[in-house]
Design brief:
alpha/beta, 7-stranded mixed sheet, 6-stranded antiparallel sheet, 29 strands, 39% helix
């Protein structure tokens, strides 16, 4: 059905204008003058013709079928016109008109009616508040953009029309073309998930770029992106992740921005490459659009500057790539053909007086080496440099190999012809070496993503209906927080270990139970009404013997009744005191876009001091849990350092997966805080000491 939007056989422009200053004239001119081969029908109430095309008073007056209608009229008339399009049998709509959800109030309701009307007739809708759509391969420019992009292999979706025009202007300067060019606008119907599905395995698109202010359906987006990124790299820049940015996004397109942590987790889990800046978005677009995929992480550096070679080397080491170790044959070849003062190892320093022939030789030797997966070519202009000739040499050599090559010609004034030559040969050039390295590292990250096996989800058998009854009972009682008994039932049902606990109703019974559990023990009041037990002194830790157990029972009972008169006191819980271990935290919150967001970090006081927390979205696969644990800066501490015994990392991963299933099974739960989770040595498991569960 999206063919009606991207490759229509006929287009009607509703709101076409004979006045060149009007938006409707610009849109019609873009369609007519950029080589679109299909039929074009301007719709205007009184004009006889515009730009040499016969006009019609409405789409209903057009005698021929219409695939796509582009709407550029005041918002108050849009709904009636869309109804006419439906009756005409139009299959696709591009609503450029603004004044809908982004203005709130009546605009939001108008947009809801707009979508309902389109769906009632089976039409697909792009917009409203959209710049339009451009398909360079079919020469369709149904937008008010000032430029027509060249045909190429980059598919772009953007929630901002201004970002679209900026990217378009940049691409013309770089000689880069597009396969698809879509301004999403308010995403009332066609959204990022729709386009990801439509562009999956698109033979005309080598890379998908996305500028996003929000994501309409987080779980659907993650599922679609996980599938697409196994075939095609997706590079996204997400704005509106700061508090101020979120507010601006809401005014811009009516978006409700999700948390930064949720977006970070979503992109990591589904393989999307996150561009932090527009610069980085352009950097990655150039690389993926022009170069073959890198096979491994071993890179060679060819440079005429030792200092720049060192800077690039540092960047490689920080990026996760590795400096390739040249083979003996490559070393021998370079030693035989380069000046004696040159460095033939990596980086390959061909000296400041290098001309184009020396670059050609060194690059050819590096690319021919089976130990090299990609090459970074650095050039600083010197008196002897042949700038344009070097660029031509790089292009000629690169064409003979299926390995990525990127350049960093540093400077500006003298580089114009050389940069133009690199563009002709489709060699990406980066102003500074660090950007070249970061781009290659991102390409390698994508390749690694495509090699990952399909996600494996570990199911745990649980009686969910019994647990839902517990949650319903809490809500019926007017509580949003589960009491301790309910918490223990929920955690135990999902196989999360909690300290063994028994209820004492008298001091003597407390002494007896303590002896059975083994002193020392923990004692706390058993009351569904008292949640903050420690604050009133209704918890005793390290109770050493039976006499102390009797005294503790009486003190806990006294304090509970004094500070919470009227509370239901069922007795005192006597619990095993868990031996010390590594303390971790697992916490869950529900993100408005993506659902359950699971946090992992060091527990106790460390979570506030160190602030080392890793996030993933539920449901989590086994690989997600493994990566979450290993992404902590404190992971080496968990593995054991300085002779300390390692923690049971498998137990942490298992707890994460159980919590993931818990919050996926029970959407009524909106928050969980397991802190601390005491983790013992390898094979000894983990115990949840304290838990807080909040329900809707």
């Amino acid at each position: 059905m999206l063919e009606a939007v991207f490759a229509p056989r006929s287009v009607a422009v509703i709101g076409a204008s004979p006045d060149p200053a009007r938006l409707g004239h610009t849109v019609l001119r873009n369609i007519v003058e950029n080589g679109y081969a299909g039929a074009v029908f301007p719709i205007h109430p009184t004009a006889a013709e515009i730009l040499g095309r016969r006009c019609y008073a409405s789409v209903l007056a057009v005698p021929d079928p219409i695939d796509l209608a582009v709407i550029v009229i005041p918002p108050r008339h849009v709904l009636s016109v869309v109804d006419e399009c439906g009756r005409k049998g139009v299959r696709g709509l591009v609503v450029i008109t603004a004044g809908f959800k982004e203005v709130g109030g009546e605009g939001r309701e108008s947009e809801r009616q707009l979508v309902a009307t389109a769906r009632a007739y089976g039409m697909r809708l792009l917009g409203p508040n959209s710049l339009g759509v451009i398909d360079p391969h079919s020469r369709l420019n149904a937008s008010f953009a000032a430029l027509m992009p060249d045909p190429g292999n980059i598919a772009l979706m953007s929630q901002s029309g201004a970002i679209c025009t900026a990217i378009l202007d940049w691409s013309k300067g770089q000689g880069i073309g597009f396969s698809r060019f879509v301004s999403l606008g308010n995403k009332a119907d066609i959204d990022e998930v729709t386009l990801l599905h439509a562009w999956n395995r698109d033979p005309q698109s080598k890379v998908i770029l996305a500028y996003l202010e929000d994501i309409s359906d987080g779980p659907a987006f993650v599922a679609a992106a996980r599938e697409v990124t196994r075939n095609t790299p997706v590079v996204a820049i997400k704005s509106g992740t700061t508090a101020a940015g979120s507010l601006a996004a809401a005014h811009h397109t009516g978006s409700l921005a999700g948390s930064e942590s949720a977006y970070e987790a979503a992109f990591a889990q589904c393989g999307i490459l996150r561009a932090r800046t527009v610069n980085e978005l352009f950097d990655l677009a150039m690389l993926f659009a022009s170069q073959p995929m890198i096979a491994g992480n071993r890179v060679a550096i060819v440079t005429n500057s030792g200092g720049m070679g060192i800077i690039a080397t540092d960047a490689v080491e920080r990026s996760g790539l590795h400096l390739a170790v040249p083979s003996p044959a490559t070393v021998a070849r370079l030693q035989g053909e380069l000046p004696a003062a040159a460095s033939v190892f990596n980086p390959i320093d061909i000296l400041g007086d290098a001309r184009s022939d020396r670059y050609r030789l060194a690059l050819d030797a590096a690319l021919a080496d089976p130990e090299v997966d990609g090459v970074i070519v650095l050039l600083t202009p010197q008196a002897q440099s042949e700038l344009e000739g070097t660029a031509e040499a790089i292009g000629a050599v690169t064409a003979r190999y299926g390995k990525p090559v990127v350049a960093s010609f540093m400077g500006g004034y003298s580089l114009g012809p050389a940069l133009a030559a690199l563009n002709r040969h489709r060699i990406p050039n980066y102003t500074f070496p660090e950007r070249a390295v970061q781009s290659l590292a991102a390409m390698y990250a994508h390749v690694e993503q495509t090699r990952r096996p399909p996600p494996v989800y570990r199911p745990y058998p649980v009686h969910r209906e019994q647990l839902r009854a517990i949650l319903a009972g809490a809500r019926a009682a007017g509580r949003i927080e589960l009491n301790e008994g309910e918490v223990r039932l929920v955690l135990s049902a999902y196989g999360l270990r909690v300290p063994e606990s028994r209820l004492a109703r008298t001091p003597d019974e407390a002494a007896q139970l303590g002896a059975e559990l083994g002193f020392p023990v923990v004692m706390k009041v058993a009351s569904p009404d008292i949640l903050l037990k420690s604050e009133i002194g209704a918890v005793r830790v390290g109770v050493p013997d039976q006499a102390a157990a009797r005294d503790s029972f009486e003190l806990i009972d006294y304090r509970a009744r004094k500070y919470w008169p009227g509370a239901s006191i069922r007795g005192v819980l006597v619990q095993e005191q868990v031996r010390p271990g590594r303390e971790c935290l697992i916490a869950v919150s529900r993100d408005p876009q993506f659902g359950p967001l699971i946090a992992l970090g060091l527990g106790g006081v460390y979570v506030e001091v160190i602030k080392d927390i890793a996030f993933r979205l539920a449901p989590m696969s086994e690989a997600d849990a493994q990566e979450q644990v290993r992404s902590l800066r404190a992971y080496p501490l968990l593995r054991g350092v300085g002779g300390e015994r390692p923690a049971d990392i498998a137990a942490i991963e298992d707890c994460l997966l159980r919590v993931s299933q818990l919050v996926s099974d029970l959407p009524e739960i909106v928050e969980i805080d397991l802190n601390p989770l005491v983790v013992h040595g390898p094979g000894e498991g983990a115990v949840v000491l304290d838990t807080r569960i909040i329900v809707q």
